[in-house]
Amino acid sequence: AMRMVTSPGKERRRASPLVVTLLSVAMGFVVGGLFLAAAGYDPFRAFSVIFRGIFSRPSYMAYTVIYATPLILTGLSVAFAFRTGLFNIGAEGQFILGALAAALTGAFVELPPLVHAVAAAGAGMIAAALWGALAGFLKARWGVNEVIGTIMLNWIALYGNNFVVTRPGITRAAATATEFVRDSARIEILGVWETSEAGLAWRAVNPLWSDVLRTPFNAGIFLALGLAFLCWWILNRTTLGYELRAVGFNSSCAEYGGIDVKRNVVRSMAISGALAGAAGAFHVLGWTRQAAELAAMEGFGFDGIAVALIGNNTPLGCVLSGFLFGALKYGGSKLQFALRAPTEVVNIVMGAIVFFVAMPRCVPLLTERWRRRKGDEGGSASGGQETKRKRDTEEALAEATTEAETASAGEKGRGHVS
């Protein structure tokens, strides 16, 4: 079969990931606007409400950052596993266990202020790292697909959390949640001082910062940015990162080169789990201050998959896409109050963005398949024509041979008669 080869001059230049992402975001808003218009709402007014709900007040911007923090970290969790050739769908369960471990440590362990916050966050990250490492071990030891393994572990984490939270001595009176974490474990910025006499006097003369301090703004965002830099440094500047990326590119070649593939699979899932656990820990220590009984998945881990995809599986991309999703989630919550429009339109916009980001990656694959198919059809057609020509030539030669033999026999007969 003939293969069609595209000459270098005819090759199309592929758009950069940044251009694709920006166009995808724009198309996502267009799709969301069409749904709003079909439901009878003014899309321009609706998007104006979203943008004003993000940028019109300092407290709104602070809440946007608070919403974005766990999304950045779960996005980093999924992206780190992606870069090493693994698909960690278990960020949701790792988030739940990280939040639970941080809440228990923050509520029932007594330590000095800064040490307590570090210990609670560390407990959350360690618990989630062990949960992620379990999925990695199952894959490395028995070949259990990490997608199946992490999905099952998500449900175990959910119901395990509910079991622990509702135990006597852990659950808070008249509530299905743990005791509140101690003030020494909180990571809110000026959380205790802002309600003191000095804090109230300072806020009275600084209305802008007072508006920010009305929110549970915390140090989680700075820790998340630090972890994003750490992920970039590990992947690009360390031997561990080289081994992890080598396993992700081609595990067989990595093993041939002397890299322990199984050990690095467990390592990758442990680091990925620790990042998702950090998201849960910072969420509890900086905002909710408790771990509660859950009726369903909270969605932070699953949103992290979309954040990683839009961020092109890079730390910087996850930070930017995490801020985008956090802004959409917080700004979109204003729609129902202002216009009585369904807040689900935000999920439509986010889903459309993911769809349009993924589409350019599918186009080259579909194009290549189409070219191969056309090449195979062209090769089959040319082969069929050649066979037909051979058959026609053979038939013509057979007819010519028959005519020659007939003529020769006739001449011989006339010779005998004479």
Question: Can you give the helix content as a percent range?
Answer: over 70%
Strand and helix order: HHHHHHHHHHHHHHHH
Quaternary organisation of the protein chains: single chain
- Provide the residue-averaged pLDDT: 87
Distance between the termini: 61 Å
Describe the structure.
It is a single chain. The chain is mainly α and 418 residues long. The chain is built from 16 helices and no strands. α1 (17-38) packs across α16, α4 packs across α12 (261-288) and α7 (197-205) crosses α8 (207-213). It is globular and about 120 Å long. 40% of the residues are buried. Mean pLDDT is 87; it is low at 1-11 and 411-418.
Helix-strand layout with pairing:
Elements: H1 17-38, H2 43-55, H3 58-83, H4 91-108, H5 113-142, H6 146-165, H7 197-205, H8 207-213, H9 220-237, H10 239-249, H11 251-256, H12 261-288, H13 300-310, H14 315-332, H15 335-339, H16 344-417
Helix pairs in contact: 1-2, 1-16, 2-14, 3-8, 3-9, 3-12, 3-13, 3-14, 4-5, 4-6, 4-12, 4-13, 5-6, 5-12, 7-8, 9-10, 9-14, 10-12, 13-14, 14-16
Keywords, please?
single chain, 418 residues, mainly alpha, 76% helix
In short:
This protein is an all-alpha fold and 418 residues long. It is 76% helix and 0% strand.
